[in-house]
Amino acid sequence: MHLTPAPVSRAVRALETELGVDLFIREHHDVRLTAAGLALCERAAEVVRHADSLGDYARSLGYEALAITVGAFHLSPPTVLDRTVDALRDLTTSNVEVQLVEPDQLPRRLAAGTLDFALVNPTSDCAGLPYQQVAVFDYVLVMRGDDPLAARDHIDWGDLARREVTLPPDTPFPSVLNNLHHFMVCHSVTRFDRIDSLDVAAMASRIRTHRTVIPSLSLEAGGPWRVFDDPAFAVRPFGEPPPPYVLSLAWSPRAPQRWGIDPGDILAAIAGRNPAYNHADR
């Protein structure tokens, strides 16, 4: 669910309070459904099935959607999102709208057909969906402008062996951030500071006030990442960079036929517009 146990437990207890029954038997090393939980689970599954079928039912009515919908996360690099939208507008006369969605919801909404296209980080959630890599961004290390590491041309992992490295919360990007964390641990980085916010401005403030360092997307990602393009900060490449941040365009299986657009044409248009795509052959 891309969540820590605490909010899940709170949500379950709130549901139990609302329904007026206990749904789980909680023991020290075991959690199982009560009789009421088993009965309600069957009904709940039926409700979910009906909810998931609403999209197909709506489309069966024969009314055409007003716009092509492109899903993205609010931190999706705008250099890629804008070019994706522009490519679609060049290839069709239909309106193109952007919907900002939590990353873990993007594959599900594509599969349900409530999104036509989306910028995603390929994970197991994308299994069964067609997608193609469209951009690759390297990680860089950001620090205060007066940090001793700012004098280096690049950062070696030994430079961080005794430093505290700030990372954002691992939701809603568990696979991406877990891979980055694992890579750093394997390269002798052991001290981590977790910040509760995904807001890039909050990360910048953390660097200034705590004199920490933080891995960031390269400045070519644009948008909020440009906050580090300021003399108060220093941005340095890694001598041995972590696995890069990969962004792919995924689409609903129904979208090409529905809108009469060949995904290959979209990808070619994005590639022509997007310098970051040229890194994808590494």
TrEMBL record:
Which PANTHER family does this chain map to?
HCA OPERON TRANSCRIPTIONAL ACTIVATOR HCAR, TRANSCRIPTIONAL DUAL REGULATOR HCAR-RELATED
The record's GO CC annotations read: protein-DNA complex
SUPFAM superfamilies documented for this protein: Periplasmic binding protein-like II (SSF53850), Winged helix' DNA-binding domain (SSF46785)
Record flagged with keyword Nucleotide-binding: no
- Could you tell me which species this protein originates from? Mycobacterium seoulense
Per the record, the similarity remark reads:
Belongs to the LysR transcriptional regulatory family.
Question: In the UniProt record, does the keyword Transcription regulation occur?
Answer: yes
**The protein's name in its UniProt record:** Transcriptional regulator
Q: Which UniProt keywords apply?
A: Activator, DNA-binding, Transcription, Transcription regulation
- Spell out the molecular function terms from Gene Ontology: DNA binding; DNA-binding transcription factor activity
Q: Which residues form the HTH lysR-type domain?
A: 1-34
